[in-house]
Amino acid sequence: MSAPLLEVIDVAKRFAVGSRFSRQGVRTVHALDGVSFTVMPGETLGLVGESGCGKSTLGRCITRLYDLTSGTLRFAGTDITSLSRRQMRPMRRRIQMVFQDPYASLNPRRRVRDLIAEPLRVHTSMSETEIASRVAELLDIVGLKSEHALRFPHEFSGGQRQRIGIARAIAMNPELIVLDEPVSALDVSVQAQIVNLLADLQERFNLTYIFIAHDLSVVRQVSTRIAVMYLGSIVEMGSADDIFSHPAHPYTQALISAVPVPDLDAQRSNKRIVLTGDVPSPINPPSGCRFHTRCPVAQERCRSERPPLMEQSPGRKVACHYPIAADATA
Amino acid sequence: MLKVRDLSVSFRTEQGIVRAVDGVSFEVGEGELLGVVGESGSGKTVSLLAVMGLITDPNAIIAGSIQYRGRELVGLKSRAMRVLRGKEIAMIFQDPMTALTPVYTVGWQIAEQVLAHQRISKAAAWQRAIDLLAEVNIPKPEEAAHRYPHQLSGGMRQRVVIAMALSCNPALLVADEPTTALDVTVQAQILDLLHKLRRNHGSAIVFITHDMGVMAEIADRMLVMYAGRVVERGTKEELFRVPMHPYTQALLDSIPPLTGEKPRRLRAIPGTPPILLNRPPGCAFAPRCAQRFEKCSAEPELGNGERAAACFRVTA
Fold first, then answer.
1. Tens of pLDDT, residues A50-74
2. pLDDT tens digit string along B44-89?
3. What are the DSSP E strand ranges found in B104-197?
């Protein structure tokens, strides 16, 4: 077994909101709370959960766009938790990020050529001709034409813009790419193109992905393993196939059952578990198990005692006092 | 109850005329749920905005006929339309914040809507607002009525908008991607709510979405739109079991499955939807279609039947 590429150990991230002059004073948002996992080289870890569960915050912590409140990040054996901006620089070429909204993440006043060349100019001492040929190569890799190089972002469709974002991310031959909802803003027909492109790139360049999305069917398609998050913590983790075929946490089960399936037969056999209410506020997270306020099987113990993320079977972890047995849902 | 015949909506732009909706016809029966699917730019929203009389752009050209219970809506004076809208036809949007004003409490906003269409006292209107909030499953409706939109979550706001739309028991509800911005668990709640409301009020609903999964769950009949035209029409069962148009087939094929064997690659549709400014002659889907042949350089007709597809492969 090779060494993990990324180790996330007991990471927490808190934000202060409000001000001392506001009615409620300064309050703390517990965005991430004791998150730990490892990512092996070449795999795709899917992060799923509802909005506000902390999945994007986690992605931004891993790329060090946010500083951690506590915990440790180790990338390829090096502790990167508290590297300064300057120390972090050589790391940045190895860890890249692709954002959800390609409209917002590309500078509208710069040509595609310059957008893609930017990381090369920052990180390498390549000559202009070398850069030009690398840009042409990258455009080809992501399925764009060489004549696109002189155009501006607004001249492209959403799917093409996402291809530009991907070209930028892979320009430095990174090892890890954090993809934050890369296909959520795209139409279904284009979404499939990008999912396929990402799979091809992963195979070709031996990339490791952290794929953040709320669309469960897309996450299942791309991920080797999946971590399900709820209110800043991982509630369940395991291989993509295991999680979907027999979810152990009641939240995972409800989440999967809530997805409308475009198949009339599946529709009838699938019993939907409708969760009541909304995700509680991360400012005052519930006591005990954070899911107990919406959990259909919550007991007295869940209100007071917080379940740790425990290994249920090899490679499978669940944070629940009363996990669903594998045979019950098979 | 709603009969749309040959509806076209064009916009004059600096670059020329854009035919956003091009000869769209459909009908909605009493109490029926018609699902309209299509990608962004397919004209699904614009055609329904035309039905609502909400296209006020002076550069828009609307042609065709929209009949609501025998009454022609195209060319109707905006005042007459306003009486109809809200009272008999209501609409809910993808982003509930566009339909709510941030400066008044939600209870007040619903009550105002009630007062605009019914002759009742203010106190009665307020009471009605609370009843409506309770009907859309908002916990503690008396308290919620005093809240401002920004104090509510996305799902709660969408409920408020639905409550508003229901305030006058509309016979027809147009819902434009009402659950797209919501999490799946909240989406499930809203879909359940719409089911319940249909049972209790018997309203007809036109539901616009790009999500085939949502369609499979709620629609009675469906329209599939592409590049401003209807490319396929039929009942939900027909469309899902035997999709006729290659676009519908490809759309269903490109969705990653949630159960069963994982395909190694998804069957993506190559290319992107056409730009409507310079619509090429012939079938708009032909450049992306795996089944195209010589005939596709001509424009395929959508038949008049309840079940139809605009494709030469089908009619041939």
1. 888 999 999 999 999 999 999 999 9
2. 999 999 999 999 889 999 999 999 999 999 988 888 998 898 889 9
3. 172-176
CB B91 within 8 A of CB B84: no
Give the strand order in the sheet containing A70-75. Answer: A27-39, A6-17, A70-75, A78-79
User: Does B272 contact chain A (CB < 8 Å)?
Assistant: yes
Work out the minimum CA distance from B176 to partner chain A, whole angstroms: 16
> Is the predicted pLDDT of residue B24 greater than 90, yes or no?
yes
Say yes or no for a CB contact (<8 Å) between A187 and B258: no
d(CA B88, CA A304): 50
What are the angstrom distances between the C-alpha of B114 and each of A186, A192, B109, B126, B175? 38, 45, 9, 9, 20
Chain CA centroid to CA B298, Å: 29
- Residues in B closer than 8 angstroms to A272, CB to CB, are 188
Backbone angle region of B216, left / alpha / beta, with phi > 0 → left and psi within -120 to 50 → alpha: alpha
What is the Cα Rg of chain A in Å? 21
Measured distance CA(B202)–CA(B170) in Å, rounded: 9
Residues of B in contact with A196 (CB under 8 A): 265-266, 268
Report the C-alpha gap between B172 and B175 in whole angstroms: 10
Tell me the residue type at A320: C
pTM of the model: 0.89
Measured CA to CA, the distance from residue A246 to residue A184 in angstroms comes to 26
Q: pLDDT digits over B180-236, tens only?
A: 888 888 888 889 888 888 888 889 999 999 899 999 999 999 999 999 999 999 999
